[in-house]
Design goal:
single chain; 7 helices; alpha/beta
């Protein structure tokens, strides 16, 4: 049974913070692989700031190609939009009926709002959550405090955001150190976020 952690995001763009967290999850937990699930449209985000799905997928591919345990995934590209995590998990279960155990990777900030997710009880019944620390406001719902399906992984706290990268790149700041070299090269060649 291959244990796969699903790391959902728009990855607009993917940055070193994403890689550090994903690599930490796969090296310091019982996960065998981490799949970066490139989200076409989050129910909580507007689409106007997003690069094309395939361009973001290409950046994730470029960022992960040298890491054998990290994989890009476009599994959500053909699902109805806006998509919900529960639908993706059902789809993955149908596509990979044997040999795979899918878990979710999320930041502590997302866990605080997890009770608002569509069918969150079903997700927690069928899947494990791997939670990494984030500096954020609010408190975690008591039902998630000592849940046997929720595993806290003491990953480094990464306070880098794609929003910051896009904004400061547009403002002419040098954000190159915040991106994997292949992502910077692709982003620069394609003149993204100017």
């Amino acid at each position: 049974m291959k244990k796969v952690g699903l790391y959902f995001g728009t990855f607009n763009p993917i940055h070193i913070g994403h890689l550090v967290i994903a690599n930490h999850m796969v090296e310091f937990s019982d996960l065998d692989e981490v799949w970066f699930v490139v989200t076409p449209q989050s129910p909580f985000k507007t689409k106007k700031t997003l690069l094309d799905n395939h361009q973001r997928f290409e950046m994730v591919y470029e960022a992960t190609k040298d890491y054998s345990k990290l994989k890009p995934s476009n599994i959500e590209f053909n699902l109805p939009q806006p998509n919900y995590t529960i639908n993706t998990l059902v789809h993955l279960g149908e596509k990979y009926p044997v040999g795979y155990d899918f878990s979710l990777i999320m930041g502590e900030d997302n866990l605080k709002g997890f009770h608002k997710w569509k069918n969150y009880e079903t997700i927690l019944e069928l899947h494990n959550l791997y939670v990494y620390p984030r500096i954020s406001e609010g408190t975690t719902d008591h039902q998630f405090k000592n849940h046997d399906k929720i595993h806290r992984v003491d990953a480094p706290i990464m306070e880098i955001s794609s929003t910051f990268i896009r904004r400061e790149h547009k403002n002419g700041k040098n954000i190159k150190p915040l991106l994997p070299p292949e992502v910077w090269k692709y982003m620069d060649e394609m003149n993204f976020y100017r």
